[in-house]
Amino acid sequence: MEERPGDDRPQLPPPSIWPVGFAIGVAVLLVGLVVSWWVAAVGAAIALIFGFLWARDVVSGREQAHAPAAEGAIEDGAPAATPELDSPDRFPRNKFLEGATLGLGALIGALVTLPVLGAALVPGFVKQKSKPINLGPLANFKEGQYYVATFERNQKEGYISRMSAFIRNNGSTNGKPSFTCISNRCVHLGCPVQAGGPVFDKQAKTVKSGHGEVDLIPALPAAGFICPCHGGAYDQEGNRIAGPPVRALNRFEFSVVDGNLVLGDMYSVAKVDGSGANAQIHKYNLAGPGQHVDGPEQWFYPVQPPH
Ligand code: FES
Q1: How much is the pLDDT for 73?
Q2: CA 244 to centroid of ligand 1, rounded, Å
Q3: What is the pLDDT of residue 1?
Q4: What are the CB-based long-range contacts (under 8 Å, 24+) for 258-262?
Q5: What pLDDT score was predicted for residue 23?
Q6: For ligand 1, is residue 249 a contact (CB within 6 Å)?
Q7: In this structure, are residues 287 and 164 in contact, taking their beta carbons and an 8 Å threshold?
Q8: Is 180 helix (H, G, I), strand (E, B) or coil?
Q9: Which residues pair with 162 in a beta bridge?
Q10: From the CA of 291, how far away is ligand 1's center (Å)?
Q11: Most buried residue, 7, 146, 236, 295, by CB count within 10 Å?
Q12: CB neighbours (10 Å) of residue 249?
């Protein structure tokens, strides 16, 4: 804007595209939080670059706003102000107080909010490895037979953390023991699914393992697994066959330690091809109930914290 003598209106910086770039970066960042970490990182980088250029423009615009006053004074024949004489205007007290108040407010705000935000958000992004669950000796699992194993997921939390898994000994493949270890949590909304067939309570036994007491009840889920809440149904491998669930039942990693069957972390499964020891499991990081893990639908869910 051209300055005229006597025109004391503030000198505004010229229009720039940096705010537009900054807004685009923020938009890409938000989309990335739903779609992919990489897109979010690109959005953050764009926002940072354009934000920096914008801030630089604003600062240099302010400096230029002071400059014409000095030039105007020279044109009018008045002596140019020396830097020393300008110094009170370059950093006036009211500006200092304004900056100090804002800075102090920001510091106090950060001290109050950051610990709370950190405690609320960080755990979701940190790999929280669950403790292995020892289900006892392999000899307790007859080959080809499903068992409903009930145990405390977290011994510190006690009874409240009791949960069940469907365990089947598939024999061995290539000399290694094979087990199917399916979670009993419906992947629709998390209700406990039940064996679609008889459960032989009278043959139940309680095994004392390195993980406390584990109840083992033989079951014959001839019709797979049924969810009583909304009619979700799964076949014997945990594949979804009916109802609102969108994927197969979650499974547990397993290992054999000193002759005992030990369950590890849970993971999600899109589907299982084949069965038993020859099953091809399409596995994914643990996802929430109702969430697609494959196909185009998976793009409609927020990205998962790393596991
Ligand atoms: S919670 Fe299982 S079908 Fe809805």
Answers
A1: 46
A2: 7
A3: 46
A4: 259/137, 259/138, 259/139, 260/134, 260/135, 260/136, 260/137, 260/138, 260/209, 260/210, 261/134, 261/135, 261/136, 261/137, 261/138, 261/141, 261/167, 261/179, 262/132, 262/133, 262/134, 262/135
A5: 92
A6: no
A7: no
A8: strand
A9: 152
A10: 13
A11: 146
A12: 27
Q: CA–CA separation, 260 vs 262, rounded Å? A: 6
Question: Is the minimum distance from the CB of 192 to ligand 1 under 6 angstroms?
Answer: no
**What's the 250 CA to ligand 1 centre distance in angstroms?**
14
Cross-strand bridge partners of residue 51: none
Q: Whose CA is nearest to atom 4 of ligand 1?
A: 230
Q: For ligand 1, what atom is nearest to the CA of residue 190?
A: 1
For 130, list phi and psi in degrees, rounded to 5. -85, 155
Structure confidence at residue 130 (pLDDT): 72
262 pocket-lining for ligand 1 (C-beta < 6 Å): no
Across the chain, which has 307 residues, the per-10-residue mean pLDDT values are 53 75 91 81 93 84 57 48 53 80 89 85 68 89 94 82 93 88 94 94 86 89 93 95 94 93 93 90 90 81 59
Q: In terms of Cα–Cα distance, which of 239, 236, 230, 251 is closest to 188?
A: 230
Pocket lining: 49 vs ligand 1, CB cutoff 6 Å: no
- Token pair of 212 as six digits: 């406390």
Residue partners of 224: CB distance under 8 A and separation at least 6: 196, 233, 234, 235, 236, 241
pLDDT score at 146: 95
Ligand 1 atom with least separation from CA of 289: 1
**Residue 89 pLDDT:** 58
In what helix (H) or strand (E) does residue 226 lie, and over which residues does it extend? strand 225-226
Instruction: Give yes or no for a contact between 243 and 263, defined as CB atoms under 8 angstroms apart.
Output: no
Measure the CA–CA gap between 100 and 107, rounded to whole angstroms. Answer: 10
Nearest residue CA, atom 1 of ligand 1? Answer: 189
Which residues face 148 on adjacent strands?
166, 217
Question: Where is 58: in which H helix or E strand?
Answer: helix 37-75
Which helix or strand (DSSP H or E) is residue 179 part of?
strand 176-183
